[in-house]
Amino acid sequence: MDARLLDVLVCPLCKGPLVYDKAAQELVCNADALAFPIRDGIPIMWSDQARSLAATERAK
Q1: Distance CA 38, CA 60 (A)
Q2: Other Cβ atoms within 10 Å of 23 Cβ, number
Q3: Contacts by 35-38 with C-beta closer than 8 Å and gap 24+?
Q4: CATH number assigned to the domain with residue range 3-52, chosen from the 4 options 1.10.1060.10, 3.90.930.1, 2.70.40.10, 2.20.25.10
Q5: What is the pLDDT of residue 58?
Q6: Interior angle at CA 59, CA 53 and CA 60, nearest 5
Q7: Strands 42-43 and 51-52
Q8: DSSP state of 53
Q9: Model-level pTM?
Q10: What pLDDT, on the 0 to 100 scale, is given for residue 30?
Q11: Nearest-angstrom CA–CA distance, 41 and 1
Q12: Which InterPro entries does this entry report, sorted A to Z (predicted)?
């Protein structure tokens, strides 16, 4: 994942910051408790493609 891209990407719902989870290949929005997948190096920023985070995952 390109660091320059991470600097400009925000959550499409709340416009808040995203945290890159390298192990899971996801961009995580803690405010909305959503994880957006990264497929073949491309972030999929559609809310219907995001998975909901469990309460224990939000504190990463």
Answers
A1: 18
A2: 5
A3: 38/1
A4: 2.20.25.10
A5: 66
A6: 90
A7: unpaired
A8: P
A9: 0.87
A10: 93
A11: 6
A12: Trm112-like
